[in-house]
Amino acid sequence: LTATGPVLNVLPLGIHIAAQETLPQLATRLAAQLKKMRRHQRYDAEQIVRDSGRAAGEEPLFGPVLNIKVFDYQLDIPGVQA
């Protein structure tokens, strides 16, 4: 894969949020799910649609999209505890 600019791939992730789950627990669980999904990052959205047997114009395969950029360093903002 060669790209000259930013590239975005859509990977479906179904999320269930339990009422008693804290934000740190949710973040930890989602981080683990995202790590597992990375092995499928070359399986693009168009291929998912084709493999699902959907025709053009049918109901969308997925709904809201959240764009996440994972960084391998900690962001420190003065006065903000994270």
UniProtKB/TrEMBL annotation:
InterPro entries membership: Condensation_dom
Record domain Condensation: where: 3-75
A single MF term (Gene Ontology): catalytic activity
Note the superkingdom of the native organism. Bacteria
Which Pfam families has this protein been placed in?
Condensation
Name listed for the protein in its UniProt record: Condensation domain-containing protein
What species is this protein from? Answer: Escherichia coli
